[in-house]
Each structure stands twice: as C-alpha cells, then as structure tokens.
Design brief:
Blueprint: E1 2-5, E2 12-15, E3 21-25, H1 28-34, E4 39-45, E5 49-52, E6 56-61, E7 67-72, E8 79-83, E9 92-96, E10 111-113, E11 129-130
Parallel strand pairs: 3-10, 10-11
Antiparallel strand pairs: 1-2, 2-5, 3-4, 4-9, 6-7, 7-8, 8-9
Amino acid sequence: MAKGGCLCGRVTFEFTGEPVKTVLCHCLNCRRITGTAFSTNVSVPSSSMRLQGDPKHFVFDSGQGPIFKISFCGECSCTLWKESDAEGFKGFHFIQAGALGQDFDNHRPDGEIFTGFRSRWLDAIQGVKQFEGTDEGLD
C-alpha cells in the first residue's frame, strides 16, 4: 500500500495494488499545475484510493479534449491528483508523484507524453516510450 499527502498533512491518501502506469507529461498545463518542467502522473484505479481530509478542486479544459479536475489542499496548495471523465481517463486517479513522498522512487516512468513541449535542457528518459501527443498505445 502506497501512501501520500500534502505538505501540511491535512489531506492524505493511500492506494492498494500496483499503479497501471506512470507517465511524465510535458504539456503546458501540467507545467502550470506543478510549477515545474513536467508532471509525473502515477495512474491508479479510483476504486483503490482511500482519502482522508477535504481537498479543494479546480476544473479545467486541457485544450487536448479531456476536462480535468485537479484536487489539492486548500491550506498548503499542494496538487495531489487529477481525474477526468474522458474516454481512457475515467475511473482513474492520476496521482502527482511528488505527493507520494518516499514512495516516489518506486514509480519509474513507463512513458513521456507531449514531448514536443519538453524543455530544451531536458533529455528523453532512456528506455522509456516517447509520445508527441497522449500515451495512446502505451498499454
């Protein structure tokens, strides 16, 4: 069982089982959400998530089709996960890997998406599938 939470500890979560996949996203929205060069998304079935606390939510149009709901702590503002009802996303939580604390290292990426937006100073991760758009076909 992996556990995670926000910086102040008001919102915590855990999930059972193994993640479906872990993907680095270089899109401009993920940069804004995380405040850094990419997001590391650990995909887990929503049914495996257990939550404590009361996260806040923000809904946005990705500009790529899916509408996402971001969950974050209303006190310390840490982004915790994303969800969407769009095809291929429904029924999953996309945990921001940094929220996993020490469990972060247990989730090596399976792929990188929106690589056309990757910062010029970042190299592709060797041995990981690369996608100009979404991760369709990564399964």
